[in-house]
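Re: duplicated header lines in exported structure tokens

Our pipeline writes sequence and tokens for each protein into one text file. With two proteins the header for the second block appears twice in some exports. Here is an export where it did not happen, for reference. First protein block:
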Amino acid sequence: MGIIKQAFMLPLQGTAVAGRWDSLFLFMLWLAAIMFVLVVGSMLAFVWKYRHKASDRTTYITGSHVLEAIWIIVPTVMLLGIFVWGYSVYRGMTQAPRDAVEIRVLGKQWVWSFQYDNGRTSIGEIYVPVHRPTKLIMTSEDVLHSFFIPNFRVKQDVVPGMYSSVWFKPTVIGTHQVFCAEYCGTSHSGMLAKIHVLSEADWEDWNEGKSPKAFGDSLVEQGRKLHETKGCVTCHTADGTAKLGPSHKGLFGSKVELEDGTFVIADENYIRGKIENPRGSTKRGFTQMMPTFQGLVTETEMNALIAYVKSLAH
């Protein structure tokens, strides 16, 4: 079991990054409180000390360059320090480790569903291992949603027609609440889910089950079958040889030169765009012949196809 921590007046710290965000938040909170007391306290003191008296005569003040310099430099240094602190935490959250467990998330009014590499799916509940990085690859089937886990201090918009991602490394075994943080219609407040953080042993049991085939084909195997049934094999191979279209071997994560001479990284969004809207994303050296599969591939099928292409990266 992880050591359960909870900062002052804040939710449980379920990840290491939660502690870093809380430290920054509390620093800014106390800094704002101290500055408020100093500024307002000084103002009240000056109002009282220099209140109007008939015998008083205002002293001519010429200003102080030293005081002005201090008032400019000190706040600037403090703001830059806060920026560097915040950016260092944010940057660590944007790039998931290569060995992260990947789970596909699909938002739909008004429910969350999840796909795992073993082929299993779950609705309203997501299972992750403790002390291992987990990356969520997310998209929406209808409108804009936002996947928010307060205990983990992570939140990411889930956008229809594209993929977004977020990663975390849970440290506290147990159940944590997931919310939708973007108004998405009538039952927005009921678009909830539970994230279950399992011990390593429980995760292996849940992930594999007593029978390797208990959950059907793995996500990659589902994608391989779709690659055949959808006709992808007519133009694309999985062994590195080119046909009418480029091979999918080694495609994912590579730098692709397009017809117009620009370069793009073949990530999840590139592959999705190539499937749904192939025009304008043709690789240099090939002729655009691919039809659009817009509306012909469901979100769950899209996740499986991308998982298969991803498995051919090496």
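Second protein block, exported in the same file:
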Amino acid sequence: MSHREHVAICYGGRSAEHDVSRVTASAVVNALDKTRFTPILLAIGTDGRWLRNVAAEHKLSHGAQAPESGLLIEGRRVVLPADPTLGGLLDLDTGEWTPIDVVIPMLHGPLGEDGTAQGLCELADLAYAGCSVVGSAVGSDKIMMKRAFRDAGVPTARWIELRDDESADADAILAQLGTPVFVKPSNMGSSVGVSRARDESELIEALALAFRYDRWALVEEAIEGREIEIGVLGDGELLLSTAGEIRPGSDFYTYEDKYEDQAAELLIPAPISDAELDELRRLAAQAYRACRCDGMARVDFFYDQNVRGWLVNEINTIPGFTPFSMFPLFAASGLAYSALIERLIDDAVRRHADRSSKAGQQRPDRSAAQELASNG
């Protein structure tokens, strides 16, 4: 794949998970094999501007590491056109054209993780890492995810969906689900907008918070038990990681636990039996396929210590590449970070070729764009 050397790493974005994305991108850039790939850093501001961080690219080319605190949102104004005959990046100031071979969208939350960035790549006829449009959209929206789990027979906690223009009967909800409950925006991650409610007044407040981030909210029963994670890669024969156990530093695994005060613990491998690991991997694969995932994901579990045993909490199609996410799970399974990134890129190229052939699409003629790039 020597001809596929330009890897565009998209980070930032307009969602509430903007800063998490910057940290994730730094980790990915530092793990990227610079002898095989040239990173193109696409920073998306909170206002939606696309910038190419050429200053960071220059430092990386001279052996520097991206900061652990996250890549900056800075650089020259650029655009990634949906025109498939172009297949690259246009500098709006200089007119310079840079071809792109593979896109790695490290954009958490809405307008990045939810199929929108993936759809842009499809229109532009570019290979991209991670799940396709359908898997990204279903995996990003908690209500659609729960519906997919339900229809596929994946065990999960009891839940109720609400829309912001519906009147919520807090008493009836708590009577059905018990107390406490968790309230979450349907299309958001990293525990943003998530609340624990123990009575009617707290439930009303929690719904108001959730509706600040999305028109739809999920209310689900609280499961008092262990929290386990499994990583999944691939779309045919799946590669499943060992298990990690999260021990939150507060009532639940909050944004602060994950990214700020580091109060949570992650135990890898999780202290579970071989039989339990086999069962978790089986359920992870079932949940992954139920959501039509085909690139990567992390599947999160709860253990209902009362009756039901292991329950799938949710699936995360662009997990943060931090010490509490995908990387350590696969590193402990024998797949080094750089090898994980390389596999994601190789899978992206293969799936792109497979999708194009099955769709019967005419391959775009990029000769003009290639000439423009060579004349630079």
